[in-house]
Amino acid sequence: MAEDIQIKREILVEADAETLQKMRKQGHARGFTVYCDEAERTGGENSAPPPLAYFSLSLAF
């Protein structure tokens, strides 16, 4: 009987991002604002974590 139960879920994620200067970006999602930047050696100013760090954190969470 339990095999017949189907649960349907819809997940909606909305986010937007914009370039501020050089490689620095600002992103918004669910009322939060985050920043990312690249290291100086790749054209950024190293003022925030790089995008790959955020991606790695998302996997860790």
General description of the model:
With 61 residues, this protein is α+β, with helices and mostly antiparallel strands. It has one domain. It is built from one helix and three strands; from the N terminus they run βββα. It has one helix at 51-60, and strands at 15-21, 24-29, 32-36. It has a three-stranded antiparallel sheet, with no helix packed on it. The protein is elongated and about 55 Å long. The relative contact order is 0.16. The model has no long low-confidence stretch (mean pLDDT 94).
Outline the secondary-structure elements:
Elements: E1 15-21, E2 24-29, E3 32-36, H1 51-60
Antiparallel strand pairs: 1-2, 2-3
Radius of gyration: 18 Å
Quickly count the helices. 1
The biggest sheet amounts to:
3 strands, antiparallel
* Strand ordering within the main sheet: 1-2-3
N-to-C order of helices and strands: EEEH
How many beta-strand segments?
A: 3
Tell me the β content.
25-35%
- What class would the helix/strand composition place it in? alpha+beta
Helix content: 10-25%
Q: Span between N and C termini?
A: 34 Å
How would you describe the shape? Answer: elongated
Jot down its keywords.
single chain, alpha+beta, 3-stranded antiparallel β-sheet, 1 helix, 3 strands, 30% strand, elongated
